[in-house]
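Standup notes, structure subgroup. Blocker cleared on the iron/sulfur cluster input:
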Amino acid sequence: MEKIKVGIIICDRYHTCAGGKCLKSLKNREGAFEMYKDRDAELVGFTTCGGCPGGNIEYAPGEMKKNGATHIHFATGFLVGYPPCPYMEHFAKFIPEKYGLQVVFGTHPIPQKYYLTHKNLDSWNTPFLQQAIQPTLSNEKTRLSYD
Ligand code: SF4
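Run returned:
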């Protein structure tokens, strides 16, 4: 079976992030990476969107593709930032069209503290966001382990 090669793009609001939660969840196959639980998967790229409105997304997937990327993951920060990234739908159409790569929403499980605040704010109340958070919702115990 073809090896999964993951490129991660993070929201620039968290540009100093060292990727700890993303790498942990890739190793443990948690959150969005649970979809690879029976697959060999490796990280081949990690960068930020470049800051609003995400100019680096025009180019970064191409560089990741040259390094073998098969899947581009938008880090969970896209979903849990205040507000969630308003450009996700556009990026998710652009990347497959331009580079032929599959886009996945999220990386590590949503941390419980973000989950609770967004639930109280009702900030995931669109059909798009309801769908987009599914891979990283996990369960409460797992979310707490990412707080
Ligand atoms: S909100 Fe979206 S475009 Fe803005 S910095 Fe975050 S990921 Fe990039």
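Discussed briefly. Residues 11-13, 49, 51-54, 78, 81, 85, 87 surround iron/sulfur cluster (CB under 6 Å).
Next: hand off to the docking folks.
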